[in-house]
TrEMBL record:
Origin species: Actinocorallia longicatena
FAD-binding PCMH-type domain: residues covered: 13-197
Stored InterPro entries: FAD-bd_PCMH (IPR016166), FAD-bd_PCMH-like_sf (IPR036318), FAD-bd_PCMH_sub2 (IPR016169), FAD-linked_Oxase-like_C (IPR016164), Oxid_FAD_bind_N (IPR006094)
Keywords: FAD, Flavoprotein
Keyword Flavoprotein: yes
Protein name, entry field: FAD-binding oxidoreductase
Length: 378
């Protein structure tokens, strides 16, 4: 028998209501739930706080939701080694508050998204592959993740990586689980490399008439920005961190010229997605910025230094915009109303799809984990 709680309408995943909801509080309990689900042939969808449960496609089936929020322990914080191990249900905000007591941080920005809510959990961030402005300097969750514990579809507990930053034994399977939307296994804990909290943070904002020129000025300078973010066609914000942030901010002002201001707080749109019924994510070279602005204009927001652009769109015009963007760049529909999800391939074509299918077949032979949520209906 599967130990579960009563199901409510709030447990539905993009309109697909599960038959059961399980809330394991230990890794052993999570493994037992997965094993029981396998024995009964149940389809399984993991969920944390649900901050990005509306991302990706609706599951083809959802017999069981595994709610990970009771997996909420800080397993180990090795402050001297700048490493932390936490369970999947820990909210990222709570983790950052704990690390701040030791003047440390997980250098990962988690965008707030369409609704503030309770905030993303560690497992949710890994499964959705979330990253924000500071990916330019620190990388994404894939780069900060050094070890992961996952429960396979058959209930077996597997580990990859370790608790130390330098770990070269075997393949880095953690990268496979990152951004896989729960289609390869249930993430139950993770280890991350940490960074010291910077002494200073300065946000340099410039109103620009030539955004690409100013982006390249920053990227080709010696300023070492943590982030270079653009809002629409005319607002550029450069984040500078560290003990010499004031001096570097002064140099940025000199470099960018008139209309440039410095603040120790971010603008109100920082870490927020652009408004719109549909959220698109485009991967392009920074030098493609003028072409992207020509297509989307004021609806564009994103990491000018990394070439990751977010576009807010209206549902009625989204399919046409997606088609035009995909003529030139990889474009993902992060979230959209059901009418758009039914008419547009959310993920778009992927040359790696045959390999991804083989990986799926090996990790989840019966295709019971988050079926249909990921690229190519995986």
């Amino acid at each position: 028998m599967l130990d579960s709680r009563p199901v409510t309408d709030d447990d539905a995943i993009l309109g697909v209501r599960p038959r059961y909801v399980a809330e394991p509080s230990t890794v052993a309990e999570a493994a037992a739930v997965m094993r029981a689900a396998g024995e009964q042939g149940l389809s399984v969808v993991p969920r944390g706080n649900g901050t990005r449960i509306h991302w990706g496609a609706a599951p083809r089936a959802c017999d069981l939701v595994i709610d990970t929020r009771r997996l909420g322990r800080i397993v180990e914080h090795a402050a001297g080694d700048l490493v932390v191990t936490v369970e999947a249900g820990v909210p990222v905000a709570d983790l950052q508050a704990l690390l701040a007591r030791e003047n440390q941080q997980l250098a990962l920005d988690v965008p707030i998204g369409a609704a503030d809510g309770p905030g993303s959990t560690v497992g949710g961030v890994i499964s959705a592959g979330v990253a924000g402005p500071r990916r330019l300097l620190y990388g994404t969750v894939r780069d900060l993740l050094i070890g992961i514990t996952v429960v396979r579809a058959d209930g077996a507990i597997t580990k990859s990586g370790g608790k130390v930053v330098k770990n070269v034994a075997g393949y880095d399977l953690g990268k496979l689980y990152t951004g896989a939307f729960g289609t390869l296994g249930l993430v139950v804990s993770a280890s991350f490399r940490l960074h010291p909290v910077p002494e200073q943070r300065r946000y340099v904002t410039t109103l620009t008439k030539e955004p690409l020129r100013d982006v390249l000025r920053i990227l080709h300078s010696d300023l070492v920005p943590s982030a270079v973010e653009l809002k629409g066609p005319d607002t550029l914000v450069t984040l500078l961190e560290g003990s010499a942030a004031d001096a570097r901010a002064a140099e940025a002002v000199r470099l960018l010229g008139r209309g440039t201001e410095v603040s120790d707080t971010p603008p109100d749109w920082w870490l927020r997605h652009p408004k719109g019924e549909v959220l698109l994510e485009v991967r392009a070279k920074p030098t493609d910025l003028p072409a992207i602005l020509e297509l989307a204009g004021a609806r564009v927001r994103g990491s000018a230094g990394s070439g990751v652009w977010l576009i807010g769109a209206f549902a009625v015009s989204a399919p046409d915009l997606v088609a035009r963007l995909r003529e030139r760049w990889p474009t993902i529909v992060r979230y959209a109303p059901e009418a758009v999800r039914d008419t547009v391939d959310l993920w778009g074509p992927s040359p790696a799809l045959p390999l991804m299918r083989r990986v799926k077949d090996q990790f989840d032979p019966a295709h019971r984990l988050s079926p249909g949520r990921f690229v190519g209906g995986i």
